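During the reporting period, we have paired protein sequences with backbone structure tokens. One record among many follows, to show the layout:
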Amino acid sequence: MKCETCAEEVDSPVERDALRFLPSAEIDFRDARYYPLLQRAVSRIPGWGLPVRSVSRVKLRKRGTLRGLAGLTTVSVEGHQLIRKGKFLGKGKHEITFYSSLLDKLSDDAVVAVMAHELAHAWLNEHVRPEASKQRERDADMLAEMWGFEPEVKVLEREADPL
């Protein structure tokens, strides 16, 4: 795994263990503030939160194209079959993007909540049938809260109103 913040391989057992939830993801963060916050979010996901092997990249960009967007999880299904004979296979590739232009306005706790929310989207897309996830935003918040991020989600709710 490569950390773009420090431009070197992340090789210590502590670093690898902290990101066990994202075993095959390339982390592309160029701002030193956010990599430790991602580690904090990922390390708090309980053991029953099985790793998300479909996340190929987690990146930080200055701003997105949609106003008010702090994070976005996208799924690419090219070359992957999601449904076969009515059975959900769930094997798309995820890319998670965080936008620093909005994250910069939030406290660390609120940023961790955004990260947990986007990680929950990736987990839900990999581990839950699509028809079981119709309220995607609320489902992602609920899963993040089940993982123990309820205090951070509450902070984000308070801080996001002005955004």
Q: What stands out?
A: The beta strands are 2-3, 8-9, 26-28, 55-61, 71-76, 83-84, 87-88, 93-99. The chain has five helices and eight strands.
